[in-house]
Design brief:
The complex is a heterodimer of chains A (167) and B (621). With 167 residues, chain A is an alpha+beta fold. Helices cover 28% and strands 32% of the residues of chain A. Chain A contains five helices and eleven strands; from the N terminus they run H-E-E-H-E-E-H-E-E-H-E-E-E-E-H-E. Chain B has three domains: 2-204; 297-451, Heat Shock Protein 90 (2-Layer Sandwich), CATH 3.30.565.10; 481-607, Response regulator (Rossmann fold), CATH 3.40.50. In chain B, strand 4 (361-369) and strand 5 form a beta hairpin. The longest helix of chain B has 116 residues, at 136-251. Chain B is rod-shaped, with a radius of gyration of 55 Å. The chains are: A alpha+beta (167), B alpha/beta (621).
């Protein structure tokens, strides 16, 4: 019994410590994004998992731009990629973005510093469903920065994004 | 004219062709550029995206199969179905729809698949409710979708290849046409360059021709001037003999019969006319070659009119023509040359008298235009007038309009007047009607309007005989030289022309105490000058070996002879100018043909044997 109490205490302390060390609360709703790799803060086993609510807590940015995938310009809203990585204390030069269908693309983390790259959770104010290329859609400010209007950056705009691995 | 028009047409055609070609080439290059620079995400990702439909259908099929065995949670089926829907949705808008739209078979198959995938909704929902029993219809339909998706991939590939080949063909054609257009443009440019070169060549040739013509005209004009100058000299020398001897005979007319006196007067009058012609021709030639410079100075118009009228009075009287002078309550100070203005006005008056009828009139009028600041001096007459067809010839030299051979004239008077007035910054013009009269005018700039002095009657009296080529002598010769003798004086005359010597000898015959020595060459003259030390030397300028100017220089440089006055007696009208240019000073210039009376008085002036009395002793008509 005593041993059990000690164990529970240890476990509690451990959990507290872990929670304090990671500084990231656990997701409550459905996980929409997991970040792995060289990150300091985690809330699961070596990964940081985000539900929509957690992403919504971060500063929100909107960009209205034309894209190859839609007829008209759309307004994409969500946290900046660099804010997410900063929150997690991520360090690395490359971010491998993985989609639902296991498609992945490598994005230089420099991009996130150079441009306001958004991890869009909403399109024209509507939450992105999987059918609408959700849950997350990486968007560059194409109309605002014309030098990003080419295939290299269009390719980096991965949709149905579910995971980012910082390397 | 035709060549000019052709040049214009060719020029316009070339410019138009160049513009059209340039536009065509630019638009072609523009479309090529657009194609080359197109951002083609959809085209690059087309296969992959189409293939993903097949792949997702396969995934869904696998999940449906394995879900029954509990290997997959039901939400996986839902997720994969959403992914499949997103795959077909991708082709509903944006660049992917456009990419598929240009491939008709692919587009049709895509629509079929989209419809089928979207129709799966209810079956998926029922499968989610009963994950243990997947409806066989779902499996079956998914299988159909998978096969159709495979067909889609293959069709898209085939069609895309075909499309690309067609596009490449079009591109090849475009390049071909562009090259052809460039060749044509190059041709047009070459033609333009050749045309331009040709035009420049023509312009240059025309310029050279014009230069050549101008130079030839100039050299012709120079040659003419030289010829006329020489002619003037050559004509003046014999005229000196004719007029000199005529005057000498006139002076001794006591021994002649009345008839002989008349003859000799006629000879003198004709030679005077000849001399005035020579002077006019020389002047005109100078003006035409731009050698005549006229000094402008303020001069009053009233003396000009008086002098001109005086010149023509005897002529008017002979023809019974009345001359009316303007009412000169005001005089005008004009900026002109007095002598030349008199010359022009005299010419107007002479014409008005000559081309008139007996008992006709000639009116001189003045009209000051305060706005233009010009004074119009006009001469109107009621004479013969000028026929309309001849109006254009009036101011042209050597165009005599009079058809009456009895009227004398050279046809250069008005031509010269026109040139003179232009040189004086004035204008000249006329109006005339045949048989009604003429109205000639000249306009000169007015400097000042002044009150006229009381009108002189300077024009009355025919004793004011004018010698156009000579100014009136300041000192008049007086007969009775014996009284003036103060010892024997010696005058040396250096002259190669025999008749000129004879005229001078005739002139000196009337001097009792003056000895005339003559020398026919410069050397002889210099020897005589040194040995006899004359009181006066008369020197011809055109001597055969050593010129008169050189003789003058030698005389001036000889200390014993340098004080002897030297009078040039020459037929060269430019003699004094030439002497000035060489820095030589003559005490006097007498122009041949000499006027006996004034020459005598000049000679006496230098010998100190004159009486300053003004009495005209010139020849009588």
């Amino acid at each position: 019994m005593k041993t059990l109490r000690l164990f529970l205490l240890m476990l509690g302390l451990g959990l507290c410590f872990q929670s304090f060390a990671s500084g990231l609360r656990a997701p409550e709703g459905a996980v929409v994004l997991t970040v792995a790799g060289n990150i300091l803060k985690t809330n699961e086993d070596h990964v940081a998992a985000f539900d929509l609510n957690m992403l919504d807590q971060l500063p929100q940015h909107s960009v209205n731009t034309t894209t190859p995938w839609f007829d008209k310009p759309k307004t994409f809203t969500g946290p900046l990629a660099r804010d997410v990585l900063k929150l997690l204390g991520a360090s690395g030069t490359n971010a491998r973005a993985v989609a639902l269908n296991d498609y992945h693309i490598d994005i230089p983390t420099q991009d996130f510093d150079d441009f306001d790259v958004i991890l869009a959770t909403r399109i024209d104010g509507e939450i992105l469903s999987i059918r609408d290329k959700g849950p997350l859609f990486i968007i560059y400010p194409f109309d605002q920065i014309p030098e990003t209007r080419n295939e290299v950056f269009f390719q980096r705009c991965i949709w149905q994004l579910v995971q980012v691995i910082v390397e | 004219m035709l060549v000019k028009r052709i040049r214009w047409i060719v020029g316009i055609a070339l410019v138009t062709a160049t513009v059209i070609l340039a536009v065509a080439i630019f638009s072609t290059i523009g479309s090529l550029r657009e194609g080359a620079l197109e951002v083609r995400v959809a085209k690059d990702d087309l296969y992959w995206s189409i293939h993903q439909i097949e792949s997702e259908a396969m995934n869904l099929l696998i999940i449906a199969h394995t879900m029954q065995n509990g290997e997959h949670p039901p939400e996986d089926l839902n997720t994969r179905y959403s992914v499949l829907l997103s795959r077909t949705d991708l082709f509903k808008e944006g660049e992917f729809r456009e990419a598929v739209n240009i491939l008709p078979d692919t587009r049709d198959l895509m629509m079929t698949i989209t419809t089928r995938v979207e129709a799966l909704g209810p079956l998926i929902e029922s499968a989610l409710k009963t994950p243990d029993a997947i409806p066989p219809a779902l499996i079956e339909k998914l299988e159909i979708i998978r096969r159709t998706a495979r067909d889609l991939t293959l069709t898209a590939h085939k069609e895309h290849v075909t499309h690309r080949v067609i596009k490449r063909g079009e591109l090849t054609d475009t390049f071909y046409y562009t090259e052809a257009l460039l060749c044509v443009l190059a041709g047009v440019i070459v033609i333009s360059m050749v045309s331009l070169y040709w035009l420049m060549y023509l312009a240059r040739k025309a310029q050279l021709d014009a230069d050549f013509q101008r130079r030839r005209a100039e050299s012709n004009s120079d040659a003419k001037s030289r010829f006329l100058s020489n002619m003037s000299h050559e004509l003046r020398t014999p005229l000196n003999a004719i007029m000199g001897f005529a005057q000498l005979i006139q002076l001794n007319s006591r021994n002649l019969t009345t008839e002989q006196t008349q003859y000799i007067n006629q000879i003198y009058k004709a030679s005077e006319h000849l001399l005035s012609l020579i002077i006019d021709i020389m002047d005109l030639s100078k003006i035409e070659s731009g050698q005549l410079s006229i000094e402008l100075a303020p001069c009053q118009i009233q003396p000009v009119i008086n002098e001109s009228v005086a010149m023509v009075r005897s002529m008017a009287q002979a023809n019974s023509i009345s001359i009316y002078k303007p009412d000169l309550r005001q005089d005008y100070l004009i900026n002109a040359n007095h002598t030349r203005t008199v010359q022009v006005l005299t010419n107007f008056l002479t014409n008005a008298i000559k081309y008139n009828h007996k008992g006709g009139w000639v009116k001189i009028e003045l009209d000051h235009n305060a706005i233009t600041g010009m004074l119009r001096i006009s001469v109107a007459d009621n004479g013969m007038g000028i026929a309309k067809k001849d109006h254009c010839k009036v101011f042209k030299p050597f165009e005599r309009l009079a058809h009456d051979p009895a009227i004398e004239g050279s046809g250069i008077g008005l031509a010269m007047s026109s040139q003179l007035v232009q040189l004086m910054n004035g204008q000249i013009g006329f109006n005339s009607k045949e048989d009604q009269g003429s109205y000639f005018w000249l306009e000169l700039p007015v400097l000042e309007v002044v009150t006229a002095p009381s009108e002189e009657t300077a024009t009355t009296g025919s004793e004011n005989k004018q010698f156009p080529a000579h100014s009136l002598p300041e000192f008049e010769y007086l007969e009775g030289l014996k009284e003036l003798a103060s010892g024997l004086k010696t005058v040396l005359y250096i002259e190669d022309n025999d008749s000129s010597i004879r005229v001078m000898e005739g002139l000196f015959d009337s001097f009792a105490n003056i000895r005339l020595m003559t020398a026919t060459t410069a050397e002889q003259g210099l020897d005589l000058a040194r040995s006899c030390l004359p009181q006066l030397i008369l020197l011809d300028l055109n001597l055969p070996t050593t010129s008169g100017l050189e003789v003058c220089a030698l005389l001036r440089n000889d200390p014993r002879l340098s004080d002897i006055p030297i009078i040039a007696v020459t037929a060269n009208v430019n003699g004094s100018q030439e002497a000035r240019e060489q820095g030589l000073e003559f005490d006097e210039f007498i122009l041949k043909p000499i006027d006996i009376a004034s020459t005598k008085s000049i000679i006496l002036q230098y010998l100190g044997q004159y009486q300053p009395s003004r009495k005209d002793l010139s020849v009588q008509d």
